[in-house]
């Protein structure tokens, strides 16, 4: 199976290396050269996109995650069979899917008829992500989802929880995405507004991906284009 790996944290981020390890070093990395978090489904059509070929299996793209998918399927690997994006350092739960570059890379693939999985890791401050644990959880996730049929126009959005070392092993829970808005709050200094919404205080309607992930389990939703 030809798999493209991408993300929105940038090609040198630890998350995409953890993802690569989770699939035993397989796949072709086509990822943004620099950090692109929160760019949504932005694409470039009015300016050239520089692509650095680092190796035969690794390309750094000076643009967005959606552009990475476009370039990968049109020029680098026309025989792509799957796109996996992540592991994002931060949750992409519920309505985050509209903002997330991680999710957009997979959505772009699905638009072209290629199935995909977006994987993110919720960050519960002041904890720091343990990428070895994230890799192990991702192996479990992929072993489950890669064998699951996906209806046309749909894809998986996965969110790993952030647990204390002594916490029980998380379960995989298929659930529905939250439709509640993100917390909105700004600190104002003169004519500058600094976003200060507290992610961990968002709505936790029971049974939604936000509640499942915040409760310590792996939240899996099936999203549709």
Compact summary:
By secondary structure, this protein is α/β, with parallel strands linked by helices.
Give the SSE map.
Elements: E1 3-6, H1 14-22, E2 28-32, E3 51-55, E4 58-61, H2 65-76, E5 82-89, H3 101-111, E6 116-121, H4 131-145, E7 154-160, E8 172-174, E9 186-189, E10 192-195, H5 209-214, E11 218-224
Parallel strand pairs: 1-2, 1-5, 2-4, 5-6, 6-7, 8-11
Antiparallel strand pairs: 3-4, 7-11, 9-10
Helix pairs in contact: 1-4, 2-3
Kindly report the spatial arrangement of strands forming the biggest sheet. 3-4-2-1-5-6-7-11-8
Strand fraction? 25-35%
> Any idea of the CATH topology?
Stationary-phase Survival Protein Sure Homolog, Chain: A
Query: Could you say which overall geometry the principal axes of the C-alpha atoms support?
Result: globular
Could you give me the name of the CATH homologous superfamily? Survival protein SurE-like phosphatase/nucleotidase
- Mean pLDDT level: 96
Output the structural class: alpha/beta
Uncertain segments are: none
What is the CATH top level name?
A: Alpha Beta
Q: Give me the Rg, rounded.
A: 17 Å
- End-to-end separation in angstroms reads 23 Å
**What can be said about the biggest beta sheet?**
9 strands, mixed
Number of strands: 11
């Amino acid at each position: 199976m030809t798999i493209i790996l991408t993300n929105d944290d940038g090609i040198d981020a630890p998350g995409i290396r953890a993802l690569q390890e989770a699939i035993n070093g397989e796949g072709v990395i086509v990822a943004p050269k620099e950090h692109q978090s929160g760019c949504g489904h932005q694409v470039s059509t009015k300016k050239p996109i520089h692509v650095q070929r680092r190796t035969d299996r690794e390309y750094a793209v000076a643009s967005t995650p959606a552009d990475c998918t476009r370039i990968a399927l049109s020029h680098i690997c026309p025989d792509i069979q799957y796109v996996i994006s992540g592991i994002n350092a931060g949750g992409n739960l519920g309505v985050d899917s509209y903002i997330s570059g991680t999710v957009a890379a997979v959505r772009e693939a699905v638009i072209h008829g290629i199935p995909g999985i977006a994987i993110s890791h919720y960050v519960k401050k002041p904890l720091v992500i343990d990428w070895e644990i994230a890799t192990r959880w991702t192996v479990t996730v992929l072993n489950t989802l890669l064998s699951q049929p996906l209806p046309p126009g749909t894809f998986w959005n996965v969110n790993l929880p952030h647990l204390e070392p002594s916490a029980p092993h998380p379960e995989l829970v298929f659930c529905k995405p939250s439709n509640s808005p993100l917390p909105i709050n700004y600190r104002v200094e003169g004519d500058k507004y600094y976003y200060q919404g507290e992610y961990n205080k968002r709505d936790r309607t029971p049974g939604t991906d936000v509640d499942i992930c915040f409760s310590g389990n792996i939240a899996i939703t099936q999203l549709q284009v």
